[in-house]
Specification:
- It is a single chain.
- This protein is an alpha/beta fold and 376 residues long.
- The protein contains 16 helices and 14 strands.
- The strands form four sheets. A five-stranded parallel sheet has the order 2-1-3-4-5, with helices on both faces.
Length: 376
C-alpha cells in the first residue's frame, strides 16, 4: 500500500485529502509544517509527498506533487523546475490527482486500484497532460471554453493552423470531462489511406478483404465510453464521412465485412487546419457532418497572434527539455527572448519547441541573441 505524506497548513484540506486518499486505497500521514514533515520523513518510508505550494518540501529524495491556490503559469514552471511530478490548482481535480499519484508510485496494477474500469486510461496517460501555456486574452479564452464545454456531451470542432496545439485542447476536453477515466483514442485522418480509413475507424471482420487475416476492432470501439479525437477530419473521404455521420446519428457502427450493428458510447472531438465551409462549397466535405461535429467550435490562435506568450512558452520548454536531457536548465538572455518574439513562427508552438531544443543542444552556457541569429 503506497504511503502519502500530506503537507498543508489547512486542517480541513489535510482531513479532506486523507479521507479521499484512504478511500482510494492509499495510506496517509499529515503534517502542518515543514519541521514536522521532515521528522516524519526520517522515520516513515513515504512513496510520495503531496505539498501545498507555500510549504517547503523536505529534502528526503521523495517524489512530490505540488498543490497551489495560485493558477499562475510561472508557479507551475518553478514547481516543475524544482522536481515536482505535477502541479495542480485548488479546487483539486481529484481524478487527475489520483492518476498522478498512481503513476508516481507505480501503483497502476496494485490492490490500491479500486476502479478497474480506469486501467486503460491510466496506462494510456502514463504522463500527465501538459499545461496550456499562455496568459494572453486569446489563450485565456481557449481555457475558458474548455472549462465550460468539457463536462457536457457536446461535440467539439477544434480549428487552427498546424502546430497550434489542437490535440492538447482535445486532451484537456477529455481530461476535464466525466469520461476522463475511460480511453482517449486518437486517429489522424490525413495519415491513413482513403481505402483503409473505414477499417481503421470501424474495424473489420476476418476475410473482409485480402489482408484481413483476423477480426479487428476500430477506433470507435476502442474509444467506447471515452473520447475519440479525429484529427485532420477535413481530409477524410466522402464515403467515410457518410459512415461517420451515421455513427454519430445512431451511436452505432458496423465493421467492414459485417452486417451486424455494434452500439458505441463515444464523444467525438474533431480537429482540422482547413476551412470546412470552403471545403463544403467545393464538394469535399458534407455539410450535415459539419453541423454534427461542430456543435461547439474552438479556434486555437496562431502563435504570432499571441506572441506575448512566447517568454512563458520559452521558459516552460527550456525547463522541460533540459529535464528530459538530464541537464540543468539553461539561461536565456532577454535579447534572445525578444528575438524569438519577432519571428513569424509558421509552424507555431511545435516549431518553437523544436527551435528551443535545437538551441539547448547547440548553444553555450546560456542562449543568446547571437545563437538565435546563427541557429534559427
Amino acid at each position: 500500500m503506497a504511503k502519502v505524506l500530506i503537507l498543508d497548513q489547512s486542517k480541513s484540506m489535510r482531513n479532506t485529502l486523507r479521507e479521499r486518499l484512504e478511500f482510494e486505497g492509499f495510506s496517509t500521514e499529515a503534517a502542518e509544517d515543514e519541521a514536522t514533515a521532515s521528522k516524519m520523513c526520517e522515520t516513515i518510508p513515504f512513496d510520495v509527498i503531496l505539498s501545498d505550494s507555500s510549504m517547503h518540501v523536505p529534502d528526503a529524495g521523495i517524489p512530490f506533487i505540488v498543490i497551489s491556490s495560485d493558477n499562475d503559469i510561472a508557479s507551475a514552471v518553478n514547481a516543475v523546475r524544482s522536481g515536482a511530478r505535477d502541479f495542480l490548482t485548488k479546487p483539486i481535480d481529484m481524478n487527475r490527482l489520483l492518476r498522478t499519484l498512481r503513476t508516481t508510485v507505480g501503483a497502476d496494477d496494485t490492490e490500491s486500484q479500486p476502479k478497474p474500469h480506469t486501467t486503460r486510461a491510466r496506462r494510456h496517460a502514463a504522463n500527465t497532460v501538459e499545461p496550456i501555456i499562455g496568459q494572453s486574452a486569446e489563450m485565456q479564452h481557449v481555457r475558458n471554453l474548455i472549462d465550460k464545454v468539457a463536462q457536457s456531451e457536446a461535440r467539439v470542432l477544434i480549428t487552427g493552423e498546424n502546430g497550434t496545439g489542437k490535440e492538447l485542447v482535445a486532451r484537456w476536453l477529455h481530461e476535464k470531462s466525466h469520461r476522463c477515466g475511460a480511453p482517449f483514442v486518437e486517429v489522424n485522418c490525413a495519415a491513413i489511406p482513403s481505402e483503409l480509413i473505414e477499417s481503421e475507424l470501424f474495424g473489420h471482420e476476418k476475410g473482409a478483404f485480402t489482408s484481413a487475416i483476423k477480426q479487428r476492432k476500430g477506433k470507435f470501439e476502442q474509444a467506447n465510453g471515452g473520447t475519440l479525437f479525429m484529427d485532420e477530419i477535413g481530409d477524410m473521404s466522402l464515403s467515410a464521412q457518410a459512415k461517420v455521420l451515421r455513427a454519430l446519428q445512431e451511436s452505432r457502427i458496423s465493421r467492414v465485412g459485417s452486417d451486424r450493428d455494434i452500439d458505441v458510447d463515444v464523444r467525438v472531438v474533431a480537429a482540422t487546419n482547413k476551412n470546412l465551409r470552403d471545403e463544403i462549397a467545393k464538394g469535399n466535405f458534407r455539410e450535415d457532418l459539419y453541423h454534427r461535429i461542430g456543435v461547439i467550435v474552438i479556434k486555437v490562435p496562431a502563435l504570432r497572434d499571441h506572441a506575448d506568450d512566447i517568454p512563458l512558452l520559452v521558459e516552460y520548454f527550456i525547463s522541460k527539455i533540459c529535464e528530459e536531457y538530464g541537464i540543468p536548465a539553461k539561461e536565456i538572455t532577454p535579447e534572445a527572448v525578444d528575438a524569438l518574439k519577432q519571428m513569424r513562427w509558421s509552424g507555431n508552438i511545435r516549431e518553437l519547441r523544436n527551435v528551443i531544443e535545437r538551441l539547448i543542444v547547440l548553444s553555450g552556457e546560456s542562449i543568446t541573441a547571437d545563437d538565435i541569429a546563427v541557429y534559427c
